[in-house]
Every structure is written in C-alpha cells, then in structure tokens.
Design goal:
By secondary structure, the protein is mostly helical. The chain is built from 4 helices and no strands. Helix 1 runs antiparallel to helix 2, helix 2 runs antiparallel to helix 3 and helix 3 runs antiparallel to helix 4.
Amino acid sequence: MYCLNQVLRINPHNGVAWNNKGELLAQAGQEYYHDALDCFKKAVELHPDYERAKDNYQKILKLLQNQ
C-alpha cells in the first residue's frame, strides 16, 4: 500500500494505481469497502474505458448494497 500511495502522491492521475489500491483495500475486508469504492470511482473517472476498474466498482457497490 505504501508504494501505491507514493505513486499516487507523485501522479494522482494514474488510474491503474487507483484501481490497484482499491483492490488491496477490498481484499483487506468489509471495513475498507467504502474506501475501495472511492478508489475504483477515481480510476473510472480518470479512465472511463478501464473495464477492470468499472467491474471492480460494480462488484464492491453490490457488496455494499447487500450489507
């Protein structure tokens, strides 16, 4: 996570890094789902055609809605 935060500090427009951070947060557990969702949303905002980030966003959104 430290490395991703450094990448995003240097280049906050890196959609892949935002997606990767979201994936790590989602894997960390339910208490991080909202943070993960924010990361996936940022990745999609930066790169609207980034299918992996869009899929991740939808998966976490569905998990949050089912809580």
